[in-house]
Design a protein that fits this description.
Shape: globular
Distance between the termini: 32 Å
Strand order of the largest sheet: 6-5-7-12-11
Helix content: 25-40%
Oligomer: single chain
Radius of gyration: 19 Å
Largest sheet: 5 strands, mixed
Mean pLDDT: 84
Low-confidence stretches: 1-24, 32-42
Structural class: alpha+beta
Amino acid sequence: MSPKVRKGFLLLTSIALLAGGSAILYRQLAAPAASGAAGSPSGAELDVRRTQESQTDAPGRFTAQAVERYVFSQEGRELFSLLVARYQDPVGAPQAAVLFPKDAQAIASSPTGLRHDIWKEAADVIVRKAPEDALFLSWWDSGQRIHYLSGRETWLHKPSLKTFSNPVWKAVQESLPPASREEAGRLEQMARWLTMDSEQALAEMAAHFGDARPVYLLVDSDLLLHLGEMAAYGGASLPLNSKNIPAGNDLHADIAQVKRWANETGDGNYLAQKEGAYYRVWSTADEKTKNTLLMRLLPFVDSLKKLPDGVSLVYQSHWGGFLSIYQIDGKRRSQD
């Protein structure tokens, strides 16, 4: 697929991503970790029900010792569920992975079902394509899924205290082994890399990890839900604009409406996801934000034009490039 065709395809399909339900996840997971709020972003109390599930409900590369389902509801309405699989790694250390269940309802109406399928496909690709000695960089919850679903080593996979200011993560805290002091330092470092200038971040990553083994970086659009958390860990605060724009019956007219909003409120660089009857749209407010590593690696329209030097795209999911895997350039690592 040519770059021009690929750009057009991703532009059209990205605004059809995660239809029906991701707005619920967005409202809950995007509560700023730095705020310390005990309740849900809407003001209503977030209720949580915890149940034990069958170990077969969370298949992965390890045998789950226990699987728990956390069902989140608000004002009597069930919103979404998360699974937490607890297991031991090859050296016997306790680990846990927050997973998206494949709900019985149709994928298109499930807040988590589409994410389940995206991650399953990505894990299958990692198992087939990534060398066994590969190291994966990501945010902590993605690191958990990479390790559990593929068995590959992840640099970051445990949260620290600042994560649990968010009411969703607070609810599952008891099931998650906490980060050590060293691992908490990695959270701070990853938050800094993802929110700093892309060229500088990749140069620092190259210098830090060297070229002794293949190093991959996984990002997905759910990282936009973690921006407050990253800022709490010392990352830069990224001034993104965001808005819910009602969806019409004409896709091209909808795209034009999204473009107008992005140009009126920022620099015209945007990422849009269709969520039921409207589009959840993000746009970068300035050149500095647009050039951060996270913005350059997510499918913002300007990011689709050219990757930053130092990474190669090795995998991108369907549905508008929601999840992407990049390899840190080994040749560059050996030269720096």
